[in-house]
Amino acid sequence: MTRTLLAATLLLSLAAPAVAGGAAAPSAQVQPATPAAVMAALKTAGYKVTMNPTAPDRDPSMTFTSGGHEVQVWLSGCKAGVCSRVTASTSWDYSDAEDLDTAVLNDWNSNYYTQAYAYEGSYYLDSTMPIRGGYTQATLKAWITEYLEDVTYFEDELPSE
Question: Which of 87, 88, 136, 159 has the most neighbouring CB atoms within 10 Å?
Fold first, then answer.
């Protein structure tokens, strides 16, 4: 009994700094759901991000390139500069193709969390992360890393041009 209590106390004392804001605090600190904070988190993750020009009737968006893919990132549900979601989107132009293969989309969507669709002669792959209430830089980095892995896998599934 004493050994179990000692082990539990040791485990809690080792975990306490991360929970209480010790050494792990910077990566676990909750970030605000603003375009500037999302852009900063993507830059901290190593991406060269460009904020797109804003328009009064459009949600804020930004762009970065990774592995030869241009990734559009836009925020939605924004009120007073605070947003509820961030979406990453990559597209492949197949406008020269006669028809787009919807079977590849159905197969993808039944096996992955990212959403694949066809629109105006292009294939798209999107992923959305809720950010209302905040998020951590580590969470945003993990989300975009997983998304970019799916981009590579999805591209491998697309028909040859």
Answer: 88
